[in-house]
Amino acid sequence: MIIIKKVGNQSYMLSNPVNIASTASIVGPKEKEGPLHQFFDQCLEDEFWGEKSWEAAESKIVKETVNMAISKSGIASREIDFCLAGDLLNQCIASSFGLRETNIPFIGLFGACSTFVESMIVGSCFIDGEFANNVVCSASSHFCSAEKQFRFPLELGNQRPPSSQWTVTGAGSVILTKSGTGPFITGFTPGKIVDMGIKDANNMGAAMAGAAEDTLVAHFKDTGRSPSYYDAIFSGDLGHIGKDILIDLASSKGYNIKSNYNDCGVLMFDKAKQDTHSGGSGCGCVASVFSGYIYKMLQEKKYRKVLLMATGALMNSTSSQQGESIPGIAHAISIEI
Amino acid sequence: MKPIQSKEEYQTYVDQKTPNSPIIKNCFNAFWVGGLICAIGQIIFEICKMRGIDETNSYTIVSMILVFCSAFLTGLNIFNKIGKFAGAGSLIPITGFANSIVSPAMEYKSEGYVMGVGAKMFTVAGPVLVYGISSSIIIGIIYIIFNTQNLILV
Amino acid sequence: MDWYMVLKAFVTGGIICIIGQILIDKTKLTPARILVAYVTLGVILGGLGWYKYLIDFAGCGATVPLTGFGSLLAKGTISEVEKTGLIGAFTGGIKAAAGGIAAAIFFGYIASIVSKPKIKKQ
After folding, report:
1. Domains in chain A: ranges and CATH
2. Which among A242, A317, C74, C104 has most CB atoms closer than 10 A?
3. DSSP, residue by residue, C48-107
4. CA distances, A204 to each of A200, A236, A284 (Å)
């Protein structure tokens, strides 16, 4: 059987581009102090948001972001066929607890920090494959709950090395629909797992850059496009170090992305003022930057063609204690108007 | 740049790209904060001595007061800022040991007082006690075996 | 008050912390591993009887860092072994270090009851 939507080795073109009807983003107080604050729908004043625990606060962020995206789209929630969401907490409890009252069929996803684009890929397949008319996709992370699960207690007086990244507190949600006025998802390149042998859990950008390069090069080769086809290329959370590495790796394969490439983790914080070292990370980073900043740029037609590539580090604290290296993954999606 | 062929080559390249910690600045801060904590301890010790408390008890009092200060500052959300500034300067003195007990206790309060505070209290400090106590027992046993006069007592 | 002793405590304690800082920055050891290394080193130096000289020289500059905690464990064990034999190997260490351990557990418990963790602002 010939797969008619597949181009090249691992890229896919949708027969009917999927419409992004609306987006919503809620971020935490540190993100509020960052350069992108005016693009987010809501910035929280404290990281508990009236809840008893950070995990509950993250669930509330997911719930409110999804509700906000649904109400902005004007689609009744019973018309939404699937809810695709994921986060970084064990067994994805932030998404499942946050969405337990939505009454929409739920599919939990995990792709570490690449979950947001993963959910958009799965969502557009459902719609283009005629399983659904409307899908909501979401991803979230929370600095405090992530530190608690992956690193040290917040009150421990330790120093963060310069290569470490700051997990973004926030969530982004998008509503995908069969028809509309755009922006449209036109195609995607799901990534392969790439392990570059990096073991330092404080240098995620370097661990994920190899996967990002693999997906990026595959996308250009499969589609025959060059980097200049896109007005802007965004990676999820490579941070300052990973961004530099990706530029080098891509140029070594003959693709110059220097002029139109940026990273959501780099955009999220002001490195000099906010002491976030190598930049933002987490599922919520690419989710909130896309739902806030990039989507508005597309709506205002400042960008017409965007490649959004979320990167993830597929590890947990057990694997890093056992001395395993950190495999990375990157999923890319083209969005055009 | 040439394409990277092996994991080793990538690791070398990444090491080059990754900025180093500002080690001179960190060492300077560690020196004066760590030194200051020890000097405060010594002042407490001298005061105890002037009040006629014997040496062993004076050292215990110093530890307890420093542990209390560290727990107090951790509770006020200040110790992590000192630790970020001073690094090993606040970690290596007994203040760091106290902080490593208090911080997970506070963090895991949301999981309850028994399995949260009680159990997680020792996530960082537990290994210190395990290795400290176990090695001291081994030292004691070795001492019994080689109980000769030329082994100097502390 | 013996201010010369305070100065010696300051310098010695500071140097012990510098060694720890170099270990953190150069070897990427986690704080828990550094603390374990220091306490074990203290036990060994205390057991060999060498740490005593540093305590005589620097007072709290040697006892306050975790190596001092280790040497206290070793010292307690040895003096208890002298009194009670094998049982002393098991009781002596904790007995000598009980003040610090009990204080850390108790104050830690109290602090966790009265206060809540907050995000690092910087």
Report:
1. 6-177 (3.40.47.40), 184-336 (3.40.47.40)
2. A242
3. HT-HHHHHHHHTHHHHSBHHHHHHHHHHHHHHHHHHHTHHHHHHHHHHHHHHHHHHHHHH
4. 7, 12, 16
Name the residue among B93, B140, B151 with its Cβ closest to that of C92: B140
Q: Is C28 on the interface with A (CB under 8 A)?
A: yes
Cβ within 8 Å, pair B79-A163: no
Which residues from chain B sit within 8 angstroms of residue C83, using beta carbons?
none
Select from A53, A156, A159 the Cβ nearest to the Cβ of B110.
A53
The count of structural domains within chain C is: 1
Number of inter-chain CB pairs under 8 A, A vs C: 21
Q: Which residues between 79 and 118 in chain C have a beta carbon less than 8 angstroms from any beta carbon of chain B? A: 79-82, 85-86, 88-90, 92-94, 97, 99-101, 103-105, 107-118
Find out whether A324 and A315 touch, Cβ atoms under 8 Å.
yes
Tell me if ipTM is over 0.85: yes
Contacts of B124 in chain C (CB under 8 A): 31-32, 35
How far is A3 from chain B, CA to nearest CA, in Å? 32
Comparing CA positions, the residue from C49, C88, C44, C89 lying closest to residue C67 is C44
Nearest CB to A153: which of B3, B10, B104? B104
Measure CB to CB from residue A47 to each of C28, C31, C119 and give the nearest one: C119
Q: Name every residue whose Cβ is closer than 8 Å to that of residue C42 and which is 6 or more positions away in sequence.
A: B132, C51, C66, C67, C68, C69, C70, C71, C72, C73, C74
Asked if residue A181 lies in contact with residue A158, where contact means CB atoms within 8 angstroms, the answer is no
Segments forming the whole domain that contains residue C81: 3-114
What chains are in contact with A, requiring at least 3 Cβ pairs below 8 Å? B, C
How confident is the prediction along chain A (337 residues), in pLDDT tens digits per residue?
Answer: 667 789 999 999 999 999 999 999 999 999 999 999 999 999 999 889 999 999 999 999 999 999 999 999 999 999 999 999 999 999 999 999 999 999 999 999 999 999 999 999 999 999 999 999 999 999 999 999 999 999 889 999 888 899 999 999 999 999 999 999 989 999 999 999 999 999 999 999 999 999 999 999 999 999 999 999 999 999 999 999 999 999 999 999 999 999 999 999 999 999 889 989 999 999 999 999 999 999 999 999 999 999 999 999 999 989 988 999 999 999 999 999 9
